[in-house]
Design brief:
With 300 residues, this protein is α/β, with parallel strands linked by helices. The protein has a single domain, classed as TIM Barrel (Alpha-Beta Barrel). The chain is 38% helix and 16% strand. It contains ten helices and ten strands. The chain has an eight-stranded mixed sheet with strand order 8-7-6-5-2-1-9-10, with helices on both faces. A two-stranded antiparallel ribbon has the order 3-4. Helix 2 packs parallel to helix 3. The longest helix has 17 residues. The radius of gyration is 18 Å and the shape is globular.
Length: 300
Amino acid sequence: MKISSFVYFAKFGIKTILCKKKIPILGTVILTDKCNLSCKHCSVNNITAIIHPYEQIKSEMTTLYHAGVRILFFCGGETFMWQDGEKNLRTLVKEAKDMGFLIVNVVTNGTFPLDLPEADLILLSLDGDRERHNIIRGDTYDTIMKNINAATSDNICFYMAINQINKDTIKDVCYTAKNMKNVRAVSFNFHTPYPDTKALALSKKEKENCCKVIIQMMKEKVPVFNLKSAFPYLISNQFPTPCHQCVVIENGKISTCGRCIEIPNLCEKCGYFFVAEYTLLFKGNVMIILDMLKTYLKYI
């Protein structure tokens, strides 16, 4: 991370904590909900299958920037399916950087060639070992491994949603991350139980066991891009929601925290690690602040 970016984020954090501001710093633009996969745990793919046009996406980026957002995510659907004429995902990442966003990340399922060195991180969904991943996402594991090995940069971060199918494969994903040259880290979430995927949710005891495994992996120097100090809050779902410092924009509509905020009672079952980390951070939790400084400076 550049020193100038670090100073900006530090000032934002201090101002937010001391003045209890609710200004966003992290924003997500949904490029499309079109996806080439139909994953068992996903509730937001191919609802409209619309690829939003370039001018709309650019306008949404501008809206988020003027709102104060400086960490930008491009999400889908599948982001690498986005294209408008000659403009593609690389176009958007470059323009976001030129616009002034300090960190620009992309979320993908990894089934398309990973030629995007301009992104700070490519968050790639890997949901277990070959067997469990393929149960969740179809026969894609080998394609993803091939694309990672052929990637043009080492900016890949695995992104695993832990659920009832893959809860015993945390170590497999961690060791794969540790041993692949183009993978910088691995980041975890617990499955957030949308109404149609409740059966995949973990119990409190299962979350606790998963966190023990992740901590063990941290001790083994696996590059885990999560904050250990947030684990107790995630296990018990005792963290404030929604996160006002995070917003999502989709087809012109801005949602605080995420698209799931309008689903009754889902916030209290949130499994997103970053939501716990950011809400606790901006509440002034000292352990979270120290943990985040150490982790973010290492992996971004």
